[in-house]
Write the structure tokens for this entry.
Amino acid sequence: MRIDMNTSALLNLRRIALPIVVVALGLVAIVGSGGGGDAPECSFFSNSCNPTFGPSPPTPYATVGPRLVTVQVGGTVDFAVESNVDEPAYQWCRLPAGASECTAVAGATGATYRLASANLSDDGATFRVTVAGTNGNAWAFSIVAVSSMPGVTFQDGEFLDTDWAVSTILVPSQNGPTANVARAATGGNPGAFRTATYQLPSVQSSARLFYSALSALYKPAVQGTIYGIDFTEDCINSSSSNLMSYTVPMIEQAGRRFVASKWAMYCRATTWTPVRRSSLGAADFEFVDGPACAAGESCPDFSGSGAPIRLGLVGGADDRGGGVVLPVQTAHGFDNWKVTVWRR
């Protein structure tokens, strides 16, 4: 976040000057108090002489969506900024991969910006917007990846039991939580959806469900090196408790499981809400289960010599001592699961 230096300096001067002014007023009151009269008593502790100020204004901020995005050559990317800057003025700029200077984009002075036809020179470029206003300045950015080939897409909105393998990790394993998984034929967004109900006992606990899509198998040796993976789904949280469930992207390769834990997203809403994670690379996934990775081994391996990769997600719920009164039961559902594998 960037703050205008003049504004910052002025605030610092005010912080320094106010105590001096107040003390000075107190001294005047002491010198002149012998005369009596009806004037209100004025001292360091008297509000009748001390100036009062309201709460400080919120710090200016800005966010851009999407933060990361992959697109095929010739595709379109639409950026949008949200900000609390008052009377905002916008300016977008483009920073090519490896460059040090962000060059202003002519005419890009609105809250939205469209990259109309991405090309390979846009691969790795950062598109940044500066928002300037009466309460300060803020900036945000998005990074674009460009693929020369179309993505390979896997998706499911029906969630037949024969199409998914589900395994569960419950902590603690004895007298701990329970999880029940089912396919709901109606109530999704629209139609069928996958649902899970969690029962957490009166001890700190967690439940994780690993969903493996049996038909979603990508073969790098046949289909090409993986550049990045997009994961999307719609989620809904139960209204029966204030315990929030979550989903995390997952992949399986060579008998191992990897999850993109930093991309875990809580499902907060009790209505269907889209969840999007874009342009995840091998470094975004961490090993969680299976044979240990050997020293120097690419783990996971997104290269053209990598083993087949099965795609899926992890769903779960946990209690981290956040004020939830245990025991508690909550339900979580997801629909319109879709994964796109982008290639170099």
Remarks:
- Residues 1-37, 42-47 have pLDDT under 50 and may be disordered.
- The chain has three domains: 1-55, 62-147, 152-343.
- The longest helix spans residues 5-32.
